[in-house]
Amino acid sequence: MTDTDSTTTGPLAPDDITADSPFTLPGFFDALAEGRLVAARCTECDEHMLPPRPACYGCGSRAVTIEEQPRTGEVISYTSVNRPPSAFDHLAPITVAVVELDSSARLTGRVDASLEDVTIGDRVELQVRDPESVDIDLDFDLSYEEDWPIHVFELV
Amino acid sequence: MSTANIVAVGASPLGRTDLPGRDLFSKALAEAFEELPDPADVVDGLYVGAQSERYENQIMQGTLMAEWAGLRNVPAERVEACAAAGALALKNAVRDVRAGVHDAVLACGVEKMTAGGTEGATNALGAAFERALEQRSGITAPATYALLAQRYLHETDATERDLAKIAVKNHRNAASNPRAMFQEAVDLETVMDAVDVAPPLKLYDCAPVTDGAAAVVVANDEVASDLLDREDAVRVAGVGSAANNLAVAERNLTYVEGANVAASTAYEDAGVDPADIDVAEVHDAFTVCEALLAEAAEFAPEGRGIETVEDPGDRSAGWTDVRINTSGGLKARGHPIGATGLLQAVEAYEQLTGRAGERQVTDADTALLINEGGVADAHTVATVLEAQ
């Protein structure tokens, strides 16, 4: 379970759950750092889960597989964080959105645009940024998060 | 199965106070036990709802509150489900009494939110959201609820003005609630003109950061009848809870399914229908929640939850005649996170025993409480209470 083309369709075995598996957060962020956004897809009901997890919250099946995601999608909802947590102070105000990717997987993320320029239905593309370039307070990161990339959406 | 009854309630003052959490708890406990024997003679266990140790750098809240209540060597546990922690404490107490594990249990909740300033509260509350993608995007509580509100306004006829009316209604109710943090009415223009917090939510769309504690004594019929007259007890007729996904993006933004499951479970447990509910305290941490929960509780047709502000006769067809957030709600009564679910129970207890003063709803016999944790229905606890 170390690549993103896996055809796993059964419950993960204990040995599958390692830091280089995309079913774990380290493996998911490693893939993201290499430019691959991956989700788990339930082979029973087709639910997409991002980040991947070992069981489907839609139907309960553990028959999940990893599927690379399109990087484009649509803004479902959006707002502005005018007073963010202290680690993000220098980015305020932060525009955030719920984005539905073209695969139907959904995730929340910052949008690299001012609030007035964003509306529901806008097309966006996922960008992957080096955590250092985002300049988030290092104290914010947990030990295992330090090298994880930061995801941001850009309007397209 | 034994019957669980609420036999006494108490709460601290709500707002920004000089008292640490344990002393706020003492205030709530002292009120609850004003006319009862010592806690050690009444209860044999306790649950305390507390959202975060970050406010006062203190865990072991179960042990601490037991000490402060004069209890020794009893089961005493902190429970946590962010803002649903208080109702979770109540649910656990009810479960123990119903199962005969204990004859009487103290459910309490406490939060000293102002201890670390606004920054401390923002950071502590941020921990309620999904870490990998949401927290690392800088999200806050108002922003997560704003994502729900923005979509709700997009999908329904509701406007920002409709949301503002919910704030006006809840401030009006709080004005006659001596327990409320804000005991003054606000007008619609004040709400509409207030500063943006997370558009479309403005300052008055958001519940305040609040210090406070609440205590509720849950007992079986035998203890209840030993302690007080029958009409002074309120029966806990039904409970339900449900966890939905943690990440807001992975849920329906305009239908809080988990809250519907929790409420439906509580209705079924109590053998009542939504139309039987006379008063409801629902989790209006942000104005949009009140609309969403009115729909999830099946008081309102889909998309019409914003009519909580209307008198029953003026609402759309399909609405029940329930009165919602007579206390002023989280919005105006105050929202000390871990205590909030129990403050809902305090209001329902007062309504169902005829102690609600100016805000008393005539012939209130049945109440519903909905307490949420995380954004919206990430965790919901619902409770049905009935007058004796």
Give a verbal description of the structure.
The complex is a heterodimer of chains A (156) and B (388). Chain A has 156 residues and is mainly β. Chain A has 2 helices and 8 strands. Chain A has a 5-stranded mixed barrel. The longest helix of chain A is centred in the N-terminal third of the chain and has 9 residues, at 25-33. Residues 1-5 of chain A have low confidence and may be disordered. Chain B has 388 residues and is an alpha/beta fold. Chain B is built from 13 helices and 12 strands. In chain B, the strands form 2 sheets. In chain B, strands 3-2-4-7-1-8-12-11-9-10 form a 10-stranded mixed beta sheet, sandwiched between helices. In chain B, strands 5-6 form a two-stranded antiparallel sheet. Chain B is globular, with a radius of gyration of 19 Å. The model of chain B has no long low-confidence stretch (mean pLDDT 97). The A-B interface holds A 25, 28-29, 49-51, 57, 76-88, 91, 94, 96-99, 106-110, 115, 120, 136, 145, 148, 150-151 and B 118-119, 122-123, 126, 130, 132-140, 142-143, 146-151, 154, 196-201, 245, 247-250, 253.
